[in-house]
Specification:
2 domains, single chain, Deoxyribonuclease I, Chain A, six-stranded mixed beta sheet, 4 helices, 352 residues, 20% helix, alpha+beta, seven-stranded mixed beta sheet
Length: 352
């Protein structure tokens, strides 16, 4: 009996030591971004945006090309941790790039783009899009962890973020750290979201288009994190608009954009929180396609006859931006668990 107890205590000690070593490793390697960091712009473009000219802006959460129609995801109630195969990821990436090129936006905001992650077989998706798309780009991290220890098998290394592509000149670009809802020690191996604001000069003026790429928190306890992140973005928009700039925020808000919408998703599954319209001023408005669902729940591979869907992707624009059209692209969730959303707009000559 004493020998058995010693063995059990030894095993407990080994497990405890391994846990402590893991915590120490995660603490040493923890991603600790500054509140504001300048982001490099890759490539050069001389042409500037113009007032009273029509432009197209696309936003798309590509699900790191690992959440296509054939997959589920453990955080949504599914079983899968990793995509089916490297070939599956490469096929999805190619399909996503072909869809973007067919839509042919002037500006493109992508979320969940991996630069070096185990889940996407260490494919550099940032370089992939730089090679496939015509334009200059920026990339800001949202998820940068050397080893994510959950679930089983563990996710391992994750380097992922938000990617902006522009056919027009970007003068500068910055990453703004957002409030982190996760507490220690969970935060050590979790997302640290930031929004990326790119400043595009406008021909013949001292004004700029402030183009914001955002992806708010999803898997948090409650919705306080998303609410704090939304309020931060709205305050940033107000500050830039007061300067006389044009402001467009695009991305995945992980909040239902239809005011008062009631979902049919079962209570024990993930739900988007409602967008907090009470914090919106008259200087801004949300823009989205009410007729095309932009995201599906990944509790099982996609089945159009049994799918829980919502509208969480779209835009917030300042009132000096004229919205000509907004259109969800109904792509059947073939290559991503999100449908892209296209905004057609122009920049008014005078603020109204």
């Amino acid at each position: 009996m004493k020998k058995t107890i010693k063995i059990l205590l030894g095993l407990v000690g080994i497990v405890l030591l391994a846990f402590i070593l893991l915590l120490v490793y995660l603490m040493i390697t923890e991603y600790k971004p500054k509140d504001v960091e300048e982001i490099a712009v890759t490539g050069t473009k001389d042409q500037k945006l113009e007032q009273d000219h029509d432009y197209k802006l696309l936003t798309w959460n590509i699900g790191y090309a690992g959440l296509d129609k054939d997959t589920d995801f453990f955080m949504d109630g599914g079983k899968m941790v990793f995509p089916i195969s490297k070939d599956h990821v490469e096929k999805a990436l190619t399909g996503i790039a072909e869809s973007i090129k067919k839509i042919d936006p002037d500006l493109c905001l992508l979320q969940e783009v991996d630069s070096n992650s185990k889940r996407t077989y260490h494919i550099n998706e940032v370089e992939f899009f730089d090679n496939k798309l015509d334009g200059i780009s920026t990339f800001a991290y949202n998820y940068k962890v050397n080893f994510v220890p959950i679930p089983f098998p563990p996710m391992g290394k994750v380097n992922s973020g938000i990617y902006t592509n522009s056919k027009y000149q970007i003068e500068s670009s910055f990453r703004y750290q957002q409030p982190i809802p996760h507490k220690w020690p969970v935060r050590l191996a979790n997302l640290k979201r930031g929004f990326n604001a790119s400043y595009l000069p406008i021909e013949g003026t001292d004004k700029q288009l402030v183009l914001v790429n955002a992806h708010l928190d999803a898997y948090e306890s409650g919705s306080n994190g998303r609410l704090a992140q939304t309020k931060q973005i709205l305050a940033f928009m107000a500050e830039e608009y007061k300067k006389g700039n044009y402001v467009i925020v695009g991305g995945d808000f992980n909040q239902e954009l239809r005011e008062g919408h009631k979902t049919d998703t079962p209570e024990d599954m993930w739900h988007p929180s409602p967008f907090p319209y009470e914090y919106m001023s008259d200087d801004f408005k949300t823009v989205f396609d009410e007729n095309i669902n932009s995201s599906r729940l990944n509790h099982k591979p996609y089945d159009p006859n049994d799918s829980y869907e919502c509208i969480i992707d779209g835009f917030i624009v300042s009132k000096n931006v004229t919205v000509n059209k907004v259109e969800g692209q109904k792509l059947g969730f073939v290559n991503s668990d999100h449908n892209p959303v296209l905004l057609e707009f122009k920049l008014e000559k005078e603020n109204k």
